[in-house]
Amino acid sequence: MKQKFALILLCISPSLVLAGCATDSGGLRTREENKLAVNGERTKFGAFWNLHPDCSAATLPNVRIIERPAHGTAEVVTEGVFPSGAKGKYAKCNGKAVKGQEIYYTSTPGYVGDDSIKLRSSYGLGYVDDVSIRVKVVK
Asked: Pick from 53, 132, 57: which is nearest to 101 by CA?
């Protein structure tokens, strides 16, 4: 029986400040990132997608917010995303629209300072990714 292989990626917007540290413990992978957002402006923090080798969408990632920001709002939106950064046999998929999950953050109007969000994503493949995002909100 042939097995299907899928590429699963989190794309981070290149306009954001990034830093990361990843660990893996029994299928739960954790990562920390730093992001920059302008006060009161809706900012895309990234996109989650899952691809088949032919670049069609595989399962829709299950992305949820497990710790909400204290000084703003975060939302997960299902929409068309454009994969980037795929390598090897998936490189041909870069820039092709597929259904995925986008993450958006908006600070409380007038707020400047630090905030944080924690996301959990899974794809039904036996592991879970947690992403802790430290947000610096500027004027």
From this structure: 57
- Please write the tens of the pLDDT for every residue from 93-109: 988 998 999 999 999 99
- Map residue 99 onto helix, strand or coil: strand
| Phi, psi of 93, rounded to the nearest 5 degrees | -85, -15
Q: Which residues are within 8 A (CB) of 57 and not within 5 positions of it... i.e. 6 or more apart?
A: 49, 50, 51, 98, 99, 100
Q: Domains (ranges, CATH) in the chain? A: 18-138 (2.60.40)
pTM: 0.78
Looking at the DSSP bridge assignments, the partners of residue 135 are 35, 115
CA–CA separation, 79 vs 59, rounded Å? 14
pLDDT tens profile 6-31: 444 444 433 333 334 556 666 788 99
Burial 19-38 (b: 16+ CB within 10 A, else e): eeeeeeeeeeebbbbebebe
